[in-house]
Structures are given as structure tokens and as C-alpha cells.
Amino acid sequence: MQKIKNLKIKYFRGIVERDLQFEGKSIVLFGENGHGKSSFVDALEFFFKGNVPYLDEAQTTSTVRHVPHISYKKKDCKVEIEFLQGAVKAYRTFQDVPQLPVHLESYFKLGSATPFILRRKYLLDFIVAQPAPRYAQLAALMGIKKLDNIELIMMRKRDEISDSVVSLQGKLDRAGEELKDIFGEEVRSESHLVELINKRLQKYGKAISSIEDILKIKPKLVEEIQGIDFEKAGKFKKIIDKAKNLFSNITFLEKHKEFWMSLDTLLKDKQKIEEIVFQQLLEQGKNLIVEKELNKCPLCLQPFEVVKRDDVIASIERRLKDYKIVGEQIKEVKRLRTKLNSDLSEYSDKFEDLRKQMFQVGYKKDLDFLDNIKASLDKLRVDSSKEILKIRLDPLNLYLKRLNEEAPLIKDIITWSEGELQKITVTKKSEEIVNIIDLLTKANETYNKITKTSAELDKKKKLESHMKLIYDTFIKIKSDEVQKIYNELEGDFCRYYEHLHPNEESGAIKLEVKRRASAEIKGRFYERDNEDPRGFYSEAHLDSLGLCIFLAFVKRFNAGFPLIVLDDVVSSIDASHRNRIGELIFTEFPDNQFLITTHDNIWFEELCAAQQAFNVGSKFKNIRIIRWSLNEGPILDKYKPRWEDIEDKLQTRDKQGAGNAGRICLEWILDEMTINLIATVPRKRGNRFEVGDLYSPLKNRVKKLLPEYYSSNEQTFQKLETHKIFGNLLSHYNPDFQNISINEIRDFIDSVKSFYKLFYCENCKEFVRYFQDTKIIKCKKGCMEWKVK
User: What is the Cα 181 distance to its own chain's centre?
Assistant: First the structure.
């Protein structure tokens, strides 16, 4: 597989100019917080993806603004990678994308499309996040975002078709109301409409046998009013009817009063709308309490001695009831909104048509008010179509007031048009015939509208049914396939988790697809299976679980792209489990190229030592960031073994550095051995233990388990305890090493090293451990071994 030889960075984040020489190997990079570790990670992401996504996710940060070094400009930024095979070089700037030969195209494409970086923040997305964000992270790892986008498009199309069905049904109902207004009664069928028309034509000795005959009989009626501009009269008649309709319905929004009331009721408790995502979690919590008879609340973890079980159940049921009501309210608001928007669209068109017709007949007064009404209705439609929580509408009475203020101007149009029509028709007979012709025209147009709308509605209903079937089928197939992938990967992340947490009463991790674009995570906790880990697992267990899931997905879906980046992901994981992460990486990912960053010096040292124990030292480079400054960026130094590094500091008479290194080394020994010998250490907030917290518990434990070994090595303990530096450490006082001689510091280091040799096997490259079942303390291969009495 293709691997990176060198990463060259210029003027990027906290880096001025620096190379990170991979040489085809993995790198473990140590640096204190704020020393530029993550700048190397960001540079890799920028090279492959063209941006640093976490910067673009926040409103106040961006790749463009915050990637360039603070002292340089965007045009100065450059990230170059030299690949091992073929010594190919490629670079990315804000202006240029990497140009790669054919044999590297698939490698680069994978790096561009798939996540390969795990940051501490992303651990939370895998485990602590709600099911939907968790699913989004896993979907990115699986490379199925395109399918999710297709699904979202299909869902929107389905909803769009459903909305059009509602809209067409409303249009059909309104056309039926128009016919009812024309004839004074509900029109039941085409034959009934013909019957009603013939009653009106009876006076003129005429009749029709079908709706199609209307077009034949209209010219015969026109013949009876020779000399009248019937076409112009028809225009005025249409204008009068339309204007009267708009005038009488100027307050049409009143019939949508229920929408405003429902929306106001819903928005009074925005918190409940936002919290509705917790409905499923509460339902599961309630089921656990009722069915499993828990002795503490799975949601707040309060014992039921503190809070009553029945009170908790009652509280959950009240919240669930509230969420169910809110859910129904949301559905109702959306239903009412569809009807409102249908009316708004129709009335907007009517006001626009009236303006065009008035312009055609030469109306001289200002018609801008009709444009204003249309714009107001269109804006209301847009505003009401937003997401529920983002809808901001004026009170209904304000919209009604604005429309009523325009009513007199519509009345002016009616008055003027009636006057113009009167000039044309002259006689009562001609006026009656114009009216009957207008009635026939409106009946014909409205019936045709009903026929056309009904046919369109039937088509839309069929399309709605087909679309629902297609969408549901797509969802099921996709969910089944995603679940199949989850099931296939289950063995991997369960095995990884068991490796990190052997012999613990947790595990059996499962991912489940429950709803659209939603992933639930389940696990075992003691005797109970299928529990939400967030309810019972510690922060360290949740973080290591997130790491296992990430690694399992990367191994499956990033084949062909060996680079994996772990950016400071072990901050909350305790030492006993942290050590196993290195073992997991060495054994399960021997062919991958890693960049592992950490600010934890002890874990860095442990990883370096473990490489030798697992015979993978030739595959790793261990590098320290020894300092950082704005003008220089991070300064790198090749890792030296612990005692070699301390000796170098002693040789250069770096008292401060040697003394601090000795203190850190002693803390490491005590931390490891109190865990390995199962020593009782008093609890401490933050679990950050120092020499003064650990030394006495370890000494007492050694005395108890290995009294003879302690007696024979008591001088080693005493030698350590007699040093002034050690006394300061026990009192949690950081000594000023400048006031201590270099010889005193060397003596202190020698006593720490002697203490270290009591418990560390150089052959196995690990500390001895107490095995309670066999009552033996030994190293891995048994080079050092004692029977506990």
C-alpha cells in the first residue's frame, strides 16, 4: 500500500516551516497542549480534503480565515506530501489542488472521500451524540452519504407530492363552491349542471344536451344583441365578478385563524419542540425501570432510595405525554399550513390577473396596490413555509387590517367597471343576455377546471401512492444493508473493545438502525444486555468504545488508504486501559500508517516501550515537540529512551530538565505499579495522582504481598526516601532545581532507576503484575516471578 515519506508544511496554522519525516513509517508525536500537534493533523486533512472541516462547522471560524499562520496570508500556505513509492511529490494550496500520477489517483480519492482522522471531539459523535448525528458520522465512514442524500431528496419529493394532493383537493373544493355560488345550490354531476343551465335558458327558448353545447349556443345568444361590443362587455363582466369575489373575500385569511392559533400554542413552549428528540430515550428508560426493576434511574443515575421509583415513572410518563401532544401539534400545524399556502397562492394569482385585466381595459387609476397585496401574500407564504421553530408571523389581525385597508380601492374598480359595462349594454334585455352568456362562460370554465383538477388529482394520488411505496422500499433496503454492515463489523469492534477491557462486565456492543438516518448503540452491563452505554459506562469506557467503532469502520471501508490519524484521543482513558491501545494498534493494524498525537508524556513513553515489546520498533518513529513559538512554530526532536534522555540532560548540566524528567519517571513507575499490584489509593478529583499520593500505598502493598522481597530491597526504598527532592515531592512541593546541585539530582535519578529495576523486566519490556487467581506476581514471560504468601 502507498505510504507517506514526508509531510512538508509552510505557514499553516501554528507551523511556520516544518517537515514531518514519516519515511513510510508510523509516527507517535508528543507535545504539550498548544505546541502545534494538531497543526500537523490539520495539514494532512487540508491536503486530502481541501479544508479543515471542524473550522468550517463553527459560525466564528473557517478554513480560509484560520488556516493561514497568523503572520502570513492565504497565498503563502502550502502543504506538500512526498510519497514513498516512486518519490512522487504533490502539494495543496488555496489556489492549487494536488496533481498526482494515475497510480495514486485511487489513494487520493479515498483520502478525499473517507474520514481517516479521529479527534477527541469525534469520539463524542460516535457515542454520546443522539442517534441521528451518530448515524451521520458512521455514514461518512461507510461512504453512503450519497445514498442518504438520495433518500432525503426522495423524502422531500414524497412530501411535495403529498402537499400537492392537499392543494389540488382544496382547489377542487373551491371550484365546487364557485359553481354553488353561480347556481345557488351544490352541483352534483354534469347532468345536474346541464339541468340547471337549461332552467336559465328556458326564457330564451334554448337548451343544451351537454356541457360541450355551451360553445354552440353562446353565438346564438349574441345574435340577439346586435350592435353591442360583446367581447369588451365580457371583459368587464369578468373584471366585475373577479373584483366582487376578491372584495367579498378580502378577509379570506380569517378562515385560517386555526393555523395562527395552533402555531401560537405550539411556539409557546419551544423547549418541548427541541426536546422531542429525547422521546425514544425516555421510552427506553421507562421500559428499563418497569421491566428490569432497576435500583436506580438509568437517566439521572439517582438511587431509588433518593427518588421514588413511581415518581420517576410518573415524571417520564408526563414528559412522554407532552412530547406526544407536541408531535401531534406539529403535524396539525403542517396540515393547516398546506391549506393556507394553497389559498395564498391562489389569491395571489387572482390579484395579479385582476391587475392585468384592468390594464387591458384602460383603467387610469393607480394599480400598484394590487401588486402590494400580491407581494404581501407571497411573503406570508414564504414566511409560513419555514421550519416550525423559525416561523415568525405577525398576528392575524394585522394581516386582515392591511387587506381591509385596500378594500375601498377594489370597490372603486367594481364601480368603474359596472359604469363602463352599463355604457356598452344600454338596454335591460342586452344586460340580461350578457349576464346569461357570462353565466354560461363561468359554468363552462369552472366545470372544465373541475374536470381538469379532478383528473390531475387522480394522477397525483396514484403518484403519491407509488412514491410512498418506492420511498418505503428504498428505506427498508438501505436500512437492511446498513444493518448488515453493522452486523458484519460487530465482531471487530466487540473484539477490539474486549482487548481494551478484558474480563470486565461490559461489552457485547451492537449498532442498530431504528429509524431513518438513525443509529442506536447497545451494550452489555453486568447481567443486562441491550443497554444504552451512555446510561452506565464511564467516560473512559465510552471514549474507548468510540475508538473501537472508528477503527472497525476504518479497517473495513478505508482499504487501499492505510493512513489513520488519532489526535489526542486518550485523555480520559486511564493508564491500565490506555496501555492496551498500543497493543491493539500493533496487532490489528500492522500494515497501516499511523499518526498518533498525544500530550500525555507517560502514554507516549509507554507506546515507545511497547513498540519494542511487540517487535514493531522498525515501523514507528517517535518524535517530541520540545518547544513552540510564534516565529519558529513547533521544534521537533527525535525521541530518546527515558534513561538516555535523562542522562543527556545530566551531561549538559540541565538540572531543571533532569529533575523534572526524574519526577515524571517516578510518577510513571508509581502509577503503573499501584495499578499492577492492585494497591488501594485514596480517590482524588480528576484522577491525577502525583508521587505523594502513590508512594505509601505502593510501599505498603509490596510489604504485604512480598515481605521478603521488600526486606531484601529495603535499602532501595530508603535511599529514595532520603533524598531532599523526594521529600519535596511527597509534600506536593515542586523544588527549585536550580538550588540543588547536579550531584544531588544525579543521586536522585540513580535512586529512581534502582527503584524502577525492582519491578521492570527489561526482557519483556513491561512491569510485573499481580495475578490474584494464581497468587503470583510476575512479568509476561516469567523472567521475574514471586509467589505471594
Answer: 53
Lookup result for grid cell 542522562: 647
Q: Which has the minimum average pLDDT: 23-27, 32-36, 385-389, 775-779?
A: 385-389
Distance CA 760, CA 742 (A): 26
pTM over 0.85: no
How far is the C-alpha of 378 from the C-alpha of 598, rounded, in Å? 56
Three-class SS of residue 58? Answer: coil
Torsion from C-alpha of 271, 277, 282, 283, nearest 10 degrees = 130
Alpha helices in 589-690 (DSSP H): 601-613, 642-651, 655-676
Enumerate the β-bridge partners of residue 563. Answer: 593
User: Within 13 A of 281's CA, how many CA atoms are on the CB side?
Assistant: 21
Q: What is the dihedral of CA 429, 433, 435, 437, to 10 degrees?
A: 180
Angle at 233 between CA 229 and CA 239, to 5 degrees: 155
> What is the identity of the amino acid at 608?
C
> How confident is the model over 560-614, as pLDDT tens digits?
899 999 998 887 676 667 778 888 999 999 999 999 999 888 888 888 888 887 8
Task: Specify whether the CB–CB gap between 529 and 508 falls below 8 A.
Answer: yes
Question: Is 626 strand, coil or helix?
Answer: strand
Write the DSSP string, 439-479.
HHHHHHHHHHHHHHHHHHHHHHHHHHHHHHHHHHHHHHHHH
- Amino acid sitting at position 257: K
Phi, then psi, of 611 in degrees rounded to 5: -60, -40
With beta carbons less than 8 A apart as the criterion, state whether 571 and 560 touch.
no
Contact partners, residue 312, CB within 8 Å, separation at least 6: 289, 297, 304
Judge contact between 61 and 55, C-beta under 8 A: yes
Residue 703 burial class via C-beta count within 10 angstroms: exposed 0-12, middle 13-18, buried 19 and up? middle
Please check the confidence at residue 309 and state whether its pLDDT lies above 70.
no
DSSP assignments along 262-285, one per residue: HHHHHHTTHHHHHHGGGHHHHHHH
d(CA 781, CA 569): 30
Give the integer Cα–Cα distance in Å for 277 and 327. Answer: 10
Cell, residue 695: 508512594
E strands, 24-135, in order: 26-30, 78-83, 89-92, 117-119
